[in-house]
Each structure stands twice: as C-alpha cells, then as structure tokens.
From TrEMBL:
This is Cytochrome c551 peroxidase. Pfam families: CCP_MauG (PF03150). Its main location: periplasm. Its EC number is 1.11.1.5. GO terms for cellular component: periplasmic space.
Length: 366
C-alpha cells in the first residue's frame, strides 16, 4: 500500500510538473484561455459529464482516448456516434471547404470526416447539440451553463459585458473561443522527433530513415500526406475512398431506429452523404473521407473513419496489400470511387512496412 501511494504521489507530481512546463512554454491569449476553459468543461453537456476533451483528449493526441472503441461514446450510456473522433490537433490548418478543378473537381478543406462544416468554428457548434454526443436540447442550455461558470467573467472580458445575454451571439462566441484554443500552440505543438530532425536536432535511425524514403517514394504516402516544408501537417486536406471495410463491431449499428433506422445496413457515404448537394455531386464522392493529419498517429488509434484498424501495422499492411486477393481483405464499405492508383498493391516487403511504421511514430508530439 505504501509503495502504491508513493507511486501515485510521484505520478501526480510529474504530471503537474509537465503541465506547468507546458504552461510556461505556451502563453495563451485571453480568447485562447477562454476556449480552453470551454474545451475542458464537463458541465456543458446534458447530463453533465462530457466535454470536448472527452473525445479529443490531449493525452491521446487530441483524439479519442478510449482506444478499445471503434467510435466515440456520447454522454448518455449506450449511445455512440457513427464515426471515430479525429484529432483536433492541427485541424486549424485546414482551409475552408472549397474545391478546385483540374480535369475533375477536387474538394478540400472543411471539418469532420465528411467536410460538412466549413471551418473549425462551425465544427465546434455541432457536438453540443448532437443527441449522440453532448446531448443538449438547445443553445439556451449551453449558454446558461456558461453564465454560472467560474469563467463567465472571462467570457465577458473577451466578448463584452452583455454578450451572455444574447443566446445566439453567445453560442457563436463559444464556438469561436474553442476554435481559438484549438488553433493555439498548446494544441499544435510541432514537438515531434521529426520536427527535431528537420531542425537538425535529431538523427533518424536507419529504420526511420528508410521509412521516410519509402513514405516519400515507393509507398506513395506523401501524395496525400505531404512531408515537405518546415512544418508539414501531413495532409493535403482532400477527400479519398481508401476502400476501408465495414466495421461490424461499430456499436452505432445497434442504436434505436430513431437514430439509425437502417441498423446494420447503414452505409457511411462520407463526403457523398454530407448534405452539400448544392456543390457536391453525391454519386462521384460516395465513400470519400477527409485525409487526416498523420501527426500524433501513434497516439490516435483506432484508425480510419470507422475505427476498423486497431494498430498501425495492420493499417500499413492494408495500404500495401488491399487489392491482393490472397490477403483476404473484406470488400470496401463503399465500392464506388475507391482509390486504386495510390494504394492496394504497393509491393512493399515486411521490412519496408515496419520501416514506414517506425517513421510514422516519429510524428508524435512529445
């Protein structure tokens, strides 16, 4: 018992020390500080108990901390979203949702796996009112909780003394402040071994160096996850259908018909089902999900939109061998628009797959 208590005290001390060191290193603006309070406040759900950090935890690379679940659980018991929570770290680098035309329309930017939010501010408004997430009945409930919070005065200092009196305006400012925190240096740290390598402060091992060469060459990873530049975020913010199989372990299939009328027949159409019919031709974008950042990928399992892959080794092997019949991979969840040009049969051997995984682990912030 004494040994356990000593260990607990030591862990608590080291955790506090690390938090203090980070606080000293990163100076947040008032708006960012307000956003941080909002981000971690578990009183902003109904019932109380879930915050933004519940599904986007710093210790998990600002992604889902419950890595035994393929998708994220809401504040209500036995209620789950249909997708794995992506990391909010480096999400602020994504441009507004838009498209370019070069022989074909290419969509990029926006937020969520399906790009349904134009930007980070619009994304931050969603979870509060989502019945499968924070489950608030309306904006009034959220704003009232902020009015009686310990940081209400800070909210007024940042946005004005009467700003909490107008529900719509206060709700918009809440999302703006959260987005400000998510855009801060505390969330987007650039402290990985790869960053140190770029700065000449770290030497890649032989395996990591081979992984980088494969990443930028034979494996074609950098086509969608560019590694160039002084501070690469390892995504081009486009949308792609990787041919990921349906995840039969997804608890979303078991939800009541009020939330999932199709039950196990539900198919996630990604960008093609995002509701952007005014600018997106759904049939040409079905199955396409936003290309995620690879930063902190060693901390953000499970992988892909439905959490099908529980480890990096299987994910890289899938990229390499998806189209090799003898590998026995299940059929894609969405068979249309599968990318067959940049993955599926890359002819990587086992050593090369392991090298790519070793390189990917250098992208974790310390």
């Amino acid at each position: 018992m004494r040994i356990g208590m000593t260990t607990l005290i030591l862990v608590s001390f080291l955790t506090a020390l690390a938090a203090t060191a980070l606080a000293e290193e990163v100076q947040l603006s008032q708006k960012e500080e307000l956003g941080k309070f909002l981000y971690f406040d578990e009183n902003l759900s109904t019932p109380k108990g879930q915050s933004c950090a519940s599904c986007h935890n710093p210790d998990s690379g600002f992604a889902e901390p419950h890595q035994n679940l393929p998708v994220s659980q809401g504040v209500l018991p036995k209620m789950f979203g249909n997708r794995n929570s992506p990391s909010v770290a480096y999400a602020s680098y994504s441009p507004e949702f838009s498209y370019t035309y070069d022989d074909q329309i290419i969509y990029h930017g926006g937020q969520f796996w399906d790009g349904r939010a134009d930007n980070l501010v619009e994304q931050a408004k969603g979870p509060f009112l989502n019945p499968l997430e924070m489950h608030n009945p309306n904006k009034v409930t959220v704003v009232q909780s902020i009015r009686i919070s310990d940081y209400a005065n800070l909210f007024k200092e940042v946005y004005g003394p009467d700003t909490l009196d107008n529900v719509d305006r206060a709700y918009d400012y809440t999302a703006e402040a959260i987005a400000a925190y998510e855009s801060s240096a505390e969330v987007n740290r650039f402290t990985s071994r790869y960053d140190k390598f770029l700065a000449g402060e770290y030497t890649l091992s032989e395996e990591e160096q081979l992984g980088l060469e494969l990443f930028d060459g034979k494996a074609l990873c950098s086509n969608c996850h560019p590694s160039s530049g002084s501070k690469p975020v390892f995504t081009d913010f486009t949308y792609d259908n990787l041919g990921v199989p349906k995840n039969s372990d997804n608890p979303f299939y078991g939800l009541p018909k009020a939330f999932n009328p199709l039950k196990s027949a539900y198919i996630d159409l990604g960008l093609g089902g995002s509701g952007r019919a005014e600018i997106v031709e759904p049939e040409k974008e079905e199955g396409k999900m936003k290309v995620p950042t690879l930063r902190n990928i060693g901390k953000t399992a499970p992988y892909t939109h439905n959490g099908y892959f529980t480890n990096l080794e299987d994910l890289v092997h899938f990229y390499n061998t998806r189209d090799i019949e003898s590998e026995g991979w299940p059929a894609p969840e969405v068979a249309a628009n599968v990318n067959t040009g940049e993955l599926g049969d890359l002819e990587l051997n086992e050593t090369e797959e392991k090298a790519i995984v070793a390189f990917l682990l250098t992208l974790d912030d310390e």
